[in-house]
Design brief:
mainly alpha, 0% strand, globular
Length: 448
């Protein structure tokens, strides 16, 4: 457990973000390995099928992710205020809530998967593989939420190293199972899905056993799993805006995927590859944003508003530095990067074009994400939700549709940085108003 209310702001945030960054790298690594193996062994149709599945997966689990982040904010604020009993109560309430909701979402997603693909105009030749992959993946989301929920709790307590260790194990297992299921057993696209689910379940079970034996606050024993309705309402109140934000973002990504799908398999495959490379490029922003959220939550709980402002400035500088290096690297090596996933010349051309347009403007995304992390840590989660919906549904999706008419898929790519710039501007304007202050939950009474 790490107390972030004492010490140099930049150093604390960097050291806290680094394990999360490494963890995110490993998490994305095995997803990229999935894509590389599928793209080179099974071909571009299978690659496009996986790419078409991810916006739907994100849409179905987005609400749960957001509500989980609300509980994480409460945990960090109670921990900063040294109210350990309430920290424990929040943890148990979160796990009980997320377990029930994840099971419900899994059943709904599997029941509707084929209908959703038809609605998104997925080409017929991709329908079978995409449905198989999606259904297997959704069948195991309770394990994914168990692991991610455990990681979120540990980060809220200031521990960003322990989740990294379990994630490294999960990554190695996933890669080995990918090779075994796809290249030895010849299970096709189903093998990629099973490899991911088994690896995530193993990481969660291992983490649960370890924490039960070693951690003073976190326990998965039946006697300690208590549901508190007051804390549940607080978690939903703080997390629901973030959850709705994630949901609207996910639905927007589905709408965008629907536009991409109309351009055929080559564009779908290229867009999927670009998204995989993007997933690496944005990792520093995500790690620094999560670190800043915990830093902000703990210091808000401790009444340290000036430290919060210094932390925001330091995080923006550090994240922007990482962004500059990543942007230069991806633009320089964009063609070989795309070729690593698939050797089709048209897929390479379209993928390289995507990376060129989007990468130049990564700085907008980085600063936007940092601001969103700050606001979530302060408990002002309604603002990122509003800005995400605005930038996606009023800017990105309409622009993608409008610009794709005269400019083809290139118009879709240009809609992305324009939406990022809109979200960043809105978040910064809200920060200047100072209305994010006074959002702490630590003064609210909890009934036992």
């Amino acid at each position: 457990m790490k107390n972030l209310t004492i010490g140099k702001e930049s150093g604390l945030i960097f050291r806290f973000a680094l394990p999360m960054l490494l963890g995110n790298v490993f998490q994305q690594f095995y997803q990229v390995v999935d894509t590389i193996i599928v793209g080179n062994v099974l071909g571009k149709d299978a690659l496009a099928s996986i790419g078409a599945s991810f916006p739907i997966i994100f849409a179905l689990i987005a609400l749960i992710i957001g509500i989980g982040s609300g509980f994480g904010t409460i945990i960090s604020q109670y921990f900063g205020a040294k109210q350990i009993d309430k920290v424990k109560l929040t943890i148990s309430t979160m796990f009980i809530s997320l377990s029930i909701v994840s099971i419900v979402m899994s059943v709904i997603g599997i029941s509707l998967s084929k209908h959703i693909f038809r609605m998104l105009q997925l080409p017929d030749e991709l329908m079978h593989d995409a449905t198989v992959y999606l259904n297997i993946y959704l069948g195991g989301i309770i394990a994914m939420f168990g692991y991610n929920g455990t990681s979120a709790v540990l980060r809220g307590l200031g521990d960003s190293k322990t989740p990294l260790y379990f994630l490294i194990i999960s990554t190695i297992v996933n890669v080995l199972l990918d090779l075994l299921f796809i290249m030895v057993f010849h299970w096709g696209i189903a093998g990629a899905a099973w490899a991911t689910i088994i690896a995530q379940a193993g990481a969660f079970i291992t983490a649960a056993i370890y924490l039960n034996k070693t951690h003073a606050i976190i326990s998965f024993k039946k006697a300690t799993m208590i549901f508190n309705y007051t804390i549940f309402k607080q978690g939903v109140r703080i997390g629901l805006p973030s959850g709705l934000q994630q949901t609207f973002v996910a639905l927007g990504m589905m709408a965008l995927m629907g536009i991409v799908n109309t351009f055929g398999t080559d564009v779908i495959a290229a867009y999927s590859i670009g998204g995989r490379i993007d997933s690496f490029a944005v990792l520093p922003a995500m790690a620094f944003s999560a670190a800043l959220a915990t830093f902000t939550g703990q210091n808000l709980g401790a009444g340290e508003n000036e430290r919060i402002k210094k932390g925001l400035k330091s995080t923006a500088i550090m994240a922007s530095t990482f962004c500059a290096v990543i942007t230069l690297s991806i633009i320089t090596f964009r063609v070989p990067l795309v070729r690593a996933f698939n050797s089709d010349p048209e897929v390479i051309r379209i993928g390289a074009e995507y990376l060129t347009i989007v990468n130049i403007f990564y700085i907008f995304f980085v600063l936007m994400f940092v601001m969103y992390g700050f606001l979530r840590g302060a408990g002002a989660t309604l603002i990122p939700m509003f800005l995400s919906v605005l930038s996606l549904w009023l800017i990105r999706v309409p622009l993608a549709w409008f610009l794709s008419k005269p400019y083809g898929e290139t118009g879709i790519w240009w809609s992305i940085p324009i939406a990022w710039a809109t979200g960043l501007l809105g978040a910064y304007v809200y920060y200047l108003t100072g209305k994010w202050k006074g959002k702490a939950v630590t003064q609210q009474k909890v009934k036992y």
